[in-house]
């Protein structure tokens, strides 16, 4: 489907909850879902209805609470799961059934222990079953990036013909390289009858640190849905990070020419909410939502930033929801005179002469050589000659 809109499917509460060490209560899922709705997420994957009674109830509760996002649950390609899934999402204002079945030789042989033709038949039957309940059915060809390309093409054609309106091609084990993954999407779009009438979706894992790059490559090649999580949490090394994909599309609008419905000022609040609930701290240097993402410590950078922020920043902290701007300058032994003067100005000190500034700056440098971080009392002491 060619459109300049990229659909954002957030799976923080399904794939994200599969992170070792994470479990979310019903109330926590509702709280996260309301934040995702405010953020502008198109599709919220709230869980895996057949996984547990608790997950089933949480998906129902999310469906009741959210009005502006489509609520989706993952389902294995078996009747019981599909029926439960339909029931779990059925009360939502907008809902989707998301079916998954593996298509790679390694998964079909060792996990499913089925012949490829049997798997194909099961996939088609599953989509037909889901279509009894909903016309919004997504099919994920698990381990698509390690699947035989001709078989995958036949498979995708068959599930589209059976009624899937979104087809996802997961890089389940984070094995693909960006160019390869983009080529996979282009190949399907160009060779599978009907592929241009449905939405192709990217779902990338981060085992080699390429989940976001692979997702962007898929979008460039024509995928119009991307599946991602807040802070990139997920199985093993995680999933593609929602905040990184969204800000890459916005910041490099000149390259992609595409839009999302995401309101970026909620990215940091969403990140902090998910981190608080899961107990997974965000690494300081994490793009967009890490506490250092908009901080500048070296003298050269601080000087440039003070003259014109675009010298060292391609987005503003406020754009993505950071509300406390003072963390922009971090004082250390690497800092320069201009950064020090500006920081001290923010603390209420104006130097009356260059000499006064130079002397205080020298005291600051000596102190910074001994100690990091310096607190406010330390910095105040640098302006007194006794320091
Ligand atoms: O990574 C994957 O393949 C998945 C599927 C269950 C959609 O998460
Ligand atoms: Zn996944």
Automatic annotation (TrEMBL):
EC number(s) on file: 2.3.3.13
Pfam families assigned: HCS_D2, HMGL-like
Pyruvate carboxyltransferase domain segment(s): 6-268
Membrane-spanning parts: none
Cellular component per GO, a single term: cytosol
Keywords: Acyltransferase, Amino-acid biosynthesis, Branched-chain amino acid biosynthesis, Leucine biosynthesis, Manganese, Metal-binding, Transferase
One biological process term in Gene Ontology: L-leucine biosynthetic process
InterPro entries: 2-IPM_HCS-like, AIPM/Hcit_synth_CS, Aldolase_TIM, LeuA/HCS_post-cat, PYR_CT
Metabolic or biological pathway, per its Swiss-Prot or TrEMBL entry: Amino-acid biosynthesis; L-leucine biosynthesis; L-leucine from 3-methyl-2-oxobutanoate: step 1/4
Gene Ontology molecular function terms on file: 2-isopropylmalate synthase activity; metal ion binding
Family note: Belongs to the alpha-IPM synthase/homocitrate synthase family. LeuA type 1 subfamily.
Name of the protein in its database record: 2-isopropylmalate synthase
Organism: Leeia aquatica
